[in-house]
Fold:
Amino acid sequence: MSFSFCPFPQRRLFGFSPGLALGPNLALGITFSILLTPLPSFAQDDFFSTVEVSDDGKQSIDQSFSLIGWAVQKVGYGLEAPGPLFSRQQRELNRVETSLFAQLDVPLPDNSAFRISGRALHDEIYRIKDNDYTYDEVNEFRNRYEIRDFYFEKEFDNGLYFKIGNQILAWGQAEYLRVTDLINIEDQYTFVQQDLEDLRLQIPAALLNFDLGSWSIDAVYTYDADTNNLAPELDEFDPFIAFRSNGTFIIEEVPEREQEVFFRASTQLASGELQFVAGEFNDNLPTLVRLEALGSPNPRLYFSQNRMRALGFSANWVEGSWLFYGEAAIHTGKRVRPNLETFFKKVGGWDEKEQLLSVLGAEYNGFENLQLAMELDLIHTRAHTSSMLLAEDQIGAGVRAFWTPLNQRLQILAVWSELVGSTGRVIRVSADYNWSDTIDFGLLWVDYQTESDSPFVPFENNDVIQLQLRYSFQI
Structure:
């Protein structure tokens, strides 16, 4: 539930507390603390239990022609006043969003297939309320259309599988921290309020899968995958909100290399699965690469995606009603945030560090219609110095309960997450009722809590309650 983002390699976001007057140095420091603090991802396959992802990247292509989709109406209410810096400054409606999603699958000759899907969104809130929404809020976030899947896939007679185009490649086991799940970017316009199918975003990629003995090998190449989608100017989760009024220019530069490569080797064990993952890639969140004109009224901050590498493994195994899983990886080239005292001394950008990420989790399925899960997360930064904002060892945790009474027509999901680094916590409760084969009703409540010295304080007043009506169709 990737504030990492935004997690859910990590996530982040944040800014400035209502009524708090911050100097430019403090405002900038808080902003970047928010922008790049590791956050829970809530992005894995089983979190919302509605989207299935194939372990080896292969999808069934022996299907008839199909068109599926859904129309969704959401109405959200902000339970607290975010503060004077945001477009919405009061307790009031914050979303009247209508969206339409459609997906077309076309089988082709010779065991191949084509898929295209897209989504269009329109939020009427900017017409209903008198708030002075920015251009980017209205046109980038509140009203947009997206091409999601757009790929061709083929399986050859020798077992070789190939897929090219816009696609999602979900690796790893963890729910709250991206350790070996390295490939896809995320929708972080909001934090923990998205549906699972809307959280991960497709990227242009080529996947090659083949078997080597008892191992399944995946090789992935991506180009221009871009960054996570962050909230636009003055929106409720604007990561740069703290210094919008300081005249600071934020400039994003294209990374030196836009190509990324990833490899995975996975095998089935007697009661589980083992995977090894490696990759060279750009950080999904832009980080500060240099500062200019610090003495002027309009300092310039340059951001880009830093080049990173990762090597790790993940495993899961079953014991009776228990499912255990774990992940560990080393990430190199991670730019880390300095503290406020040294922030403006880093004119050449933030320091690059090596981080060790690890996860240990368990799920219990021994109750009827009830699943319980718990996860512990750790980020250890090697060669840690006193100039860094966060501690050498950052610990996080998450607990999840998923209940499906009434013959599974009602689904209630409750999540409590302690953010990595002890910067705050999030509570998310949703209830979805399947009225019929085509109509579902939903209710969502999200509560954000932060410590008094947390960089996420500006967003603690973004608590929300949301109603949803969904109509599904299939041809």
